[in-house]
Amino acid sequence: MLTIYGSARSRALRTLWMAGELGLQYEHKDYLPRSPETKTDQFRALNPNSRVPVIDDDGFVLSESMAINFYLAKKHGKLYPTDPKQEARALQWSLWETDRLDRQIVNYVNHTSGLPEAERKPDVAAAAWAEVVPAFDVLETALAKSEWLAGPEFSVADLNVASALYRALSIDLGKWPRLKAWLNRCWERPAAKRARAMRE
Ligand SMILES: N[C@@H](CCC(=O)N[C@@H](CS)C(=O)NCC(=O)O)C(=O)O
């Protein structure tokens, strides 16, 4: 039995989207980040970082959203590039996103619209945006060469990067038309819509 720990209002959104793509049955422990459930000894035994998502797949416990999606896709033989070069490309984009965009996009959206006005810090938003813009430029250039990030079709690479860019759906992406079209293509998938509905 697969158990997914983490609310759709967290990075577990990525895991829930992947589970939907693969048609998996799972138990959902709908824990919010920093909730009391994530501070228990029982949860810390699963993830000493006290963070979500975490999965327990018949006793195989794994954290880190990108790694979880690679594992699930590979195990179930779907959305996983079998060619070693495309597999490496999928890893490249997932690691790149974690480094260049994961926190930056959250900081930008939180400090421009997400947080209550009194808690927003314009300097944090500006610093985040200064990193988001060149990263979006990189994606725009890559998507001019290929419709998908790792190979000829939608894969774990697209799911990992597009799911992490959930908050970019509320940003004006007019400067990056290919990025905008790709993001919409990804989020129009039925499993993406179902995951999104769990959050909104
Ligand atoms: N790199 C980790 C990040 C996990 C993470 O930071 N999760 C957030 C929720 S989106 C969390 O649980 N935060 C709790 C905290 O900051 O204490 C991943 O991608 O899974």
In short:
It contains 9 helices and 4 strands, in the order βαβαββααααααα.
Helical amount: 55-70%
- For the secondary structure, the number of strands is 4
The SSE string, one letter per element, is EHEHEEHHHHHHH
> What best-fitting shape do the alpha-carbon axes yield?
globular
The parts where pLDDT drops under 50 for at least 5 residues are none
Biggest sheet: strand arrangement? 2-1-3-4
Percent range for β-strand residues: 5-15%
Question: What's the Cα radius of gyration?
Answer: 17 Å
Biggest β-sheet description: 4 strands, mixed
Question: Pairing-aware structural class of the strands and helices?
Answer: alpha+beta
User: Taking all residues together, what is the mean pLDDT?
Assistant: 97
The number of helical segments is 9
How far is the first residue's CA from the last residue's CA? Answer: 27 Å
- Small-molecule binders: glutathione
Main features:
200 residues; alpha+beta; 4-stranded mixed beta sheet; 9 helices; 4 strands; globular; binds glutathione
Word description of this protein:
There is one protein chain. Helix 1 packs across helix 9 (190-197) and helix 5 (102-114) packs across helix 6 (122-145). This protein is α+β, with helices and mostly antiparallel strands. The chain is 56% helix and 8% strand. The chain binds glutathione (GSH). The site of glutathione has 11 residues, from helix 3. Glutathione is lined by residues 10-11, 33-34, 50-53, 64-66.
